Amino acid sequence: MERRLHAANVVELSGKYLRYCCNSEEPVPHTHEQGKDLGAEAIEHAVRGKPYGFAKPGEKLPEHLYLADYYHKYGAFMLGLDVAYGKSKLFPRQDEAAVPVVVDNGVRAPNPRVSLDSGTTGYLYDVMKGAKYFHLVVFASSIEGLVKQNIQRFAQSLSDPAGFYSRYGGREVFNIVVVTKRLPFEIDTVMAEPEFRVLKEVASIVYDDQPPDEDGHTMWGVDHGTGAVVAVRPDLWVGRTVRPDQVDELDTYFSDFLIHQAKKGVNGVNGVNGVNGVNGVNGHAPAH
Q1: Please, what are the domains in the chain?
Q2: Residues 24-59, buried b or exposed e (16+ Cβ, 10 A)?
Q3: 100-151: per-residue pLDDT in tens?
Q4: Is residue 234 packed enough to be buried (19+ CB in 10 Å), middle (13-18) or exposed (0-12)?
Q5: Per-residue pLDDT tens digits for 195-210
Q6: How many angstroms separate the CA atoms of 31 and 98, rounded?
Q7: Rounded to two decimals, what is the model's pTM?
């Protein structure tokens, strides 16, 4: 469903760009709407004002307005970020005012520079490896006040046998990455608290040590007052964003396309923080 709509959009925008580069009068087929019959919602290009009067399908614009219109709609594609996907169960529509980041669902996850440990720098993608994983990127800011309370709620859900993490595969399926503004010695103290024990066991921690106007929290537009958990698909596209305490929202999201995993025997092999297999889960969580 999503691939057909996406491919149709790439065909259309490529045709438009070729028409401009070649100074061609050949009409561009309007293919973008193909795929809506499969249920995906077409990508909407918000009109941001005059003087461009953005073109409707088949409408001819003067060259300078044509190019302005094109770059407004497809600037991310020209920067190598690909074309955003339409909305679907994998990229649900969210209330922008309630989302704790500015990055929308259905776009490639930004890849800021971070510190991997006290002596190594790298990028966020360095800890988001593996085509079998859904990545849960926890933007923790300084882990104080409300942010700390929200992340404690998220951490507690990881050991809940009825929660999404245990039901859909635990560490076999989910790769958790905590991005924090705290220094390594400070985060060690925080993670030593009982409420964070499970999170410390299963998560990779990276340090957002770039200048405030260039760091990962800024690149993603994270609300420092609440923190955020971003569900990133195995292909590194943003699927869903919630506050860390909104674990029920993550449960609803993953329930739409993942399959419950069977418990594993009495020995707890592949278990998720389980005892004698009580919370154990086995295998991967394929999409429908």
Answers
A1: 2-78 (no CATH), 96-255 (3.40.30.20)
A2: eeeebeebbebbeeeebbebeeeeeeeeeebeeeee
A3: 999 988 888 999 999 998 889 999 999 998 888 999 999 999 999 999 999 9
A4: middle
A5: 999 999 999 999 999 9
A6: 33
A7: 0.75
